[in-house]
Amino acid sequence: MIIAVDGPAASGKGTLARRLAQHFNLGHLDTGKLYRATALRALASGGDPADPAVAEAAAKAVRAADLGDPRLADEAVARGASVVAAIPSVRQALFAFQRDFARHPPGGAAGAVLDGRDIGTVICPDADAKLFITAGIEARAARRVKELRDSGKAAIYEAVLQDMKDRDARDSQRRAAPMVPADDAFVLDTTTLDADAAFAAALDFIGRKLAAAPAKG
Length: 217
Ligand code: DC
What we know:
The protein has helices spanning 13-24, 32-44, 52-61, 75-84, 88-103, 119-123, 137-150, 157-173, 195-212, and strands at 2-6, 27-30, 112-116, 129-134, 186-189. A 5-stranded parallel β-sheet has the order 2-3-1-4-5, sandwiched between helices. It has a single domain (2-202), classed as 3-Layer(aba) Sandwich (Rossmann fold). The two termini are 12 Å apart. The protein is of the alpha/beta class. The model has no long low-confidence stretch (mean pLDDT 95). 2'-deoxycytidine-5'-monophosphate is lined by residues 9, 31-32, 35-36, 78, 81-82, 85, 116-119, 167, 171.
């Protein structure tokens, strides 16, 4: 079983994807980490993440072990991630990793939950259930500020909001795999929902989707 969870930053998609994976006993891949790891490698090499040759080489060097690096959470890395993510050769270089994870989830799990921007449209167009999680930009910026402050970092709301607007624009206006809901995705707006309510709505949709699907095999 493959569940695709797409949506913008701080929409609640990561938390939801983790809970769904736990609930259904599936593997979980946060695909944003692949783009973050690419940006981190590009920055660490002293190169410019906007340079396609630098970014492509960094993407090709990304390994599973990179995904646990705590520096992936840095705001500079997140910004670099949305820059490298617009480069087609980077997306191409990261494609196989994501497909492999979906087809052969670690630990022999019966499937996987992948979260990102293009899972339902490009990486797993045949996913059994597709969710697109969204929320108003002010709500998302406020969540990110709280997250940063809770982890002991300083955060200015206006700066976080502007950064998020810039990133949304880059992610949704790029030509390569822009962030858009798949035609058959369930769009869930979490502006006024907490994590439990979002999880319940997602489970309800997945339950209906699986019940309506013809048996596989
Ligand atoms: O979800 P995140 O903030 O970790 O993602 C970091 C960047 O990577 C984001 O700006 C968009 C990009 N991304 C992407 O283009 N496609 C994905 N499947 C996941 C992330």
